[in-house]
Amino acid sequence: MHENTVREAFPELDAIADDDLRTGVVDAWATAMTDNGVEDLAGVPWLPPVQRDLALDDESLVDHVREVTACALALAETLLDHRQVDISLDTVLAGALVHDVSKLAEFDGMDATAVYDLLGHPYYGVHLVARAGLPVELAHVALSHTHRTTVEPATLEATIVAHADAVAAAAIRSRATDDLRTV
Fold first, then answer.
1. Do residues 34 and 132 touch, judged by C-beta distance below 8 A?
2. Tens of pLDDT along 50-95?
3. What is the CA radius of gyration of the chain?
4. Which end of the chain is more exposed for a tag (fewer CB within 10 A), N or C?
5. Alpha-carbon separation of residue 45 from 23, 91, 105 (angstroms)
6. What is the domain count for the chain?
């Protein structure tokens, strides 16, 4: 039902070589949309509490996920060009694309839900990734990409996504302050 919406929102899906992985990422987002009554994926805010505090009402989740994906891919490709490391670009791409999938359950518009207050997106993201039949490596990316858990990234792919997410979030916050230490 929502598969076309997800594919339109995230053209980066086409870069995932593994068909099953690509389909699983689409399924995770489509399931999150269906479960939470989200019809307008492009209209979902990035992170309402921060947006409210910093008067950044125009930031969208889709834009953030696309920025994280672009940053993660650039980091991975740089490492592949300069080091002899074993990095799965498919895992980086898919992980970046699903890292915030559960924000659809965390907020109803700009209002926090019990999922945000009691669980937060890393934990609910693991649930959505597992429901979509995606590999445990992607559940690990969702779980370890944020400070809302004590789980540290254990793989290079998870580390790349976590750092890409932090940089993309800092870029958003930089619109409201010259000193990122203050927010």
1. no
2. 999 999 999 999 999 999 999 999 999 999 999 989 999 999 999 9
3. 15
4. N
5. 24, 25, 12
6. 1
Residue 16 has pLDDT above 80, yes or no: yes
Strand partners, 112: 107
Report d(CA 134, CA 139) in Å as an integer: 8
pTM of the predicted model over 0.85:
yes
Domain encompassing residue 148? 3-182
Residue 72 corresponds to which tokens in the numbers above?
A: 């993660």
- With a cut of 90, say whether residue 182 has pLDDT above it: no
